Amino acid sequence: MSKPETEAAPAAPPPEPGSRPEPEVKRLSGRGLLWRALALAVGTLLIVNGSVYGNDTHWPFASMGQFAFRVGDNDSIRSTFLAAVDEDGNLQRVALSHNNIGIARAEVEGQQRNFILEPQMLSALAENYARRHPGSPELVQLWLCQDITELYKGRERGTSIETMVGWPANTLIPESLPEPGGEKVAVDLDAPENSRPNTDESTGQSGQESR
């Protein structure tokens, strides 16, 4: 007795014109899985260690100090800024940006202690400003300062300005300093009210000026 003939499987339909064949799925080998797991473990350890013990120099495995802080309801908010008088005698705020002074705000804040200990470092910012603004009056006196906002129960209680350091004269910032975004103001640096010394050159701390 003869066996019934087996029917052949239907042929796969031809691909439609313009369609792409599905790529072959490749599974990771045991070795590939192992080194990926090790890389993940090492990265996790670096981030955890940096978050606990690291500082700005360990970024990206540590948080940047300018962002990694919490302000309490009764604390103060400090914002670093640069002010200057140009050769025409105009007092102004100078934007802390790489395009403006050759160094970014984060770098200025990260080196704040060095600026205080070595005020002549501010001269490099004046030189960078002159190179980037060849048609503008040069900066002849600079101050590194902080706007301070005092909080009480989460609400603003008052504001002040602290002069961290000045160069070439380590004096307090004149009280006529314009508000952020304000126009330049003429100032006489030889006037007694504009030549008050910054009291503690070793730390840059000075009597705060209320506003």
Please explain how this structure is put together.
Residues 1-25, 174-211 are annotated as: Disordered. Residues 195-211 have a biased composition (Polar residues). By secondary structure, the protein is α+β, with helices and mostly antiparallel strands. It has a domain at 76-203. The protein contains five helices and six strands. It has helices spanning 30-53, 98-101, 105-110, 112-117, 122-132; strands spanning 76-86, 90-94, 139-152, 155-167, 185-186, 209-210. A six-stranded antiparallel β-sheet has the order 5-2-1-3-4-6. Strand 1 and strand 2 (90-94) form a beta hairpin. The termini are far apart. 16% of the residues are buried. Residues 201-208 have low confidence and may be disordered.
List the helices and strands and how they pair.
Blueprint: H1 30-53, E1 76-86, E2 90-94, H2 98-101, H3 105-110, H4 112-117, H5 122-132, E3 139-152, E4 155-167, E5 185-186, E6 209-210
Antiparallel strand pairs: 1-2, 1-3, 2-5, 3-4, 4-6
Provide a concise account of the structure shown.
By secondary structure, this protein is of the alpha+beta class. Helix content is 24%, strand content 22%.
Features:
211 residues; 5 helices; six-stranded antiparallel beta sheet; single chain; elongated; alpha+beta
Helix proportion range: 10-25%
Unreliable residue runs: 201-208
By helix and strand content, what is the structural category? alpha+beta
Percent strand: 15-25%
Number of strands: 6
Q: What is Rg? A: 31 Å
H and E string: HEEHHHHEEEE
Largest sheet descriptor: 6 strands, antiparallel
- Tally of helical runs: 5
Overall shape: it is: elongated
Kindly report how far apart the N and C termini lie. Answer: 112 Å
Across the major sheet, the strand order is 5-2-1-3-4-6
Question: What integer is the average pLDDT?
Answer: 84
